[in-house]
Amino acid sequence: MWRPWGKSPTRIHDTSASSSLSPSPPPPLFSCSSFKDIVSLCADEPSSNLACAATAAKKSFAVFHRVRVANSLLRAWSTRSLPQPQPEPRPEEPPAICIPGAEKRVVVYFTSLRVVRSTFEDCRAVRSILRGFRVPIDERDLSMDSSFLVELQQILGRRKLTLPRVFIGGRYVGGAEEVRQLHEAGELKQFVEGLPAAEPGVCEACGGYSFVLCDECNGSHKLYSEKAGFKCCNACNENGLIRCPSCSWSPI
Q1: Per-residue pLDDT for 180 more than 90?
Q2: Signed CA dihedral, 151, 164, 107, 220: sign only
């Protein structure tokens, strides 16, 4: 069972032969002929490293200098007082338009003529809205008395006007569009809360028209005298009517 000591099956290769077939080792990185050359090579490498380090230090110093200058400039600009923008002047609100002596009622300037249908519809709608609150309403029909037009122009300071125009508690509210918006928003009720309640029923003297015939000219607007002949009545308007003394307020 044991192998003989004399012979071994393992073959030993010849290193001399195999070395001739193997590739030659790479040449050395440097060659030197003496120990002096090695010393000189070792001395050159630190000097080159120091030069590179000095160049890198100069670059880093230049970058640091730039960053420091930029930070100082930014700090100076941030602390610099910039001119503050001036606030735009607010438009002045127009003064409130008021009618003296009308603090306890509603005054409506309107027309009963149907010449312009849209104007007539607006006047009728506004009067219907205001009558629903059961408060005293002074209705001033410009088609019945031209002095109301002059009066309204003086109050608003305008020559051209659209109707209707509404004053509540002596203060100007607006026209038909403003009254509709306030009524839809429920704010119109707050305007008339402080007003007294209107008396029920219709005036027996004028029947709710706010005008009666003039007693001087009996509605003709003309007076006759033997000396001067016919002349215009000074007590009534051009229609021969006067405001009802029972239910109407005197013009302002």
Answers
A1: yes
A2: positive
Mapping DSSP onto H, E and C, the string for the chain reads CCCCCCCCCCCCCCHHHHHHHCCCCCCCCCCCCCHHHHHHHHHHHHHHHHHHHHHHHHHHHHHHHHHHHHHHHHHHHHHCCCCCCCCCCCCCCCCCCECCCCCCCEEEEECCCCCCHHHHHHHHHHHHHHHCCCCCEEEEECCCCCHHHHHHHHHHCCCCCCCCEEEECCEEEECHHHHHHHHHHCCHHHHCCCCCCCCCCCCCCCCCCCEEECCCCCCCCEEEECCCEEEECCCCCCCCEEECCCCCCCCC
Which pLDDT does position 226 carry in this prediction?
83
Of the candidate ranges 39-53, 172-186, 189-203, the one whose mean pLDDT is the lowest: 39-53
